Amino acid sequence: MYKGKSVAVVVPAYNEESQIGKVIETLPGFVDKIVIVDDASTDKTAEVVERYCKKYPRKYGSRIVLIRHEQNQGVGGAITTGYKWARDNRMDVSVVMAGDGQMDPEDLPNLLDPVVEDKADYTKGNRLFTGNAWNLIPKVRYLGNSVLSLLTKIASGYWHVADSQTGYTAASLKVLETIQLENIYNGYGMPNDILVRLNVYNFRVKDVPIKPVYNVGEKSGIKLYRVIFTIPFLLLRLFLWRMKEKYVIRDFHPLVFFYFIGLITFPVGFLLGLYDFFYRIFVGPVAPTSAMFDAFLVIMGLQFLLFAMWFDMEYNRDLK
Questions:
Q1: What is the value of pTM for the model shown?
Q2: How far apart are alpha carbons 225 and 266 in whole angstroms?
Q3: What's the CA gap between 68 and 71, in Å, rounded?
Q4: Of 72, 190, 301, 311, which cross-links 255 as Cys (Cβ 3.0–4.6 Å)?
Q5: Quick one: which of 280, 291, 191 has its CA closest to 235?
Q6: Distance (Å, rounded) from C-alpha 272 to C-alpha 270?
């Protein structure tokens, strides 16, 4: 128990036999349940977990819950399985910690406090607060994370949230009971997906500074070529879904018109301007009116998009 609230730590694990023991050993004593979801590992991850239960029955026998997937469901699928167990067993707060040892247990109280004290419904770690993030995080992942964080702000409506790809989070029981866990994305876009769903239900989300942890023996399963296109398209789909669910079905807001007009006029103006640009280079002069029309569409589209983002930011400013 932590300040009178039951705590479950969900640990998605895929081929983490070298790291899972460290994760188990370093979890604080106030963690009531350690829900380890073995996502069809091909190594001895599950055997290592079972060994801890047999070797230390008093310490881990009743605390560790091992769930094994027969087929690999992805990190999002593993987290969802752990969430369902925590929800069904009425755990007050559910934390997600990776099985590779990249999440420092010392940061756990800072993630728990806002949820336990009812100051937030969902907290997530932010590795970018520290000035050492640029030096500690691999540069490609840092830059990719920054781009996805910007896109996630737009898609989710949580403009105060950064470091969208971190999986170190804490969710209240109310969150797990409200959102449809079965529909959450199973891949590496899961943190982005859940943020969008939280916003539709107006849950409060808080960023908590955490320390970046790298080079502790972990092996990243993220393949750049797999996520460079899939996550941006996922965010576009989620953005459109949020517009429909939040600003049309639940509470109509005129910002949908601003986004609609901006998403039409800006791309059209940009493409026409690109066409006229190459026409001028390879063919000949372009009519001044054509260039002015292209510029008008681009400027008008940008203005509509920026106003829509501002409306969205104002609407959600209390959700932090």
A1: 0.88
A2: 28
A3: 9
A4: 311
A5: 191
A6: 6
Q: State the Cα–Cα distance between residues 8 and 163, nearest whole angstrom.
A: 23
Mean pLDDT across the chain: 90
Q: Which amino acid is at 143?
A: L
Q: DSSP character for 11?
A: E
Rounded distance between C-alpha atoms, residue 173 and residue 91, angstroms? 6
Going by the DSSP 8-state scheme, the letter that residue 29 receives in this structure is T
Gap between the Cα atoms of 159 and 164, Å rounded: 11
pLDDT attached to residue 138: 67
Q: What angle do CA 9, 22, 46 make, to 5 degrees?
A: 70
5, β-bridge pairs = 2
* Domain 7-246, second-level architecture: Alpha-Beta Complex (3.90)
What is the SS3 string spanning 210-279?
A: CCCCCCCCCCCCCCHHHHHHHHHHHHHHHHHHHHHHHHHHHCCCCHHHHHHHHHHHHHHHHHHHHHHHHH
pLDDT tens, residue by residue, 56-85:
888 888 899 999 999 999 999 999 999 999
Task: State the amino acid at position 128 in one-letter form.
Answer: L
The distance in angstroms from the start CA to the end CA of the chain is: 25
* Least confident residue range of 17-21, 81-85, 133-137, 284-288: 133-137
Residues 79-119 pLDDT 10s: 999 999 999 999 999 999 998 888 989 999 999 999 999 99
Where do the structural domains in the chain lie, given as residue ranges?
7-246, 253-315
DSSP string, 172-205: EHHHHHHS-GGGS--STTHHHHHHHHHHHTT--E
Sheet with 169-172: list strands edge to edge: 64-68, 33-38, 7-13, 93-96, 169-172, 122-126, 205-209
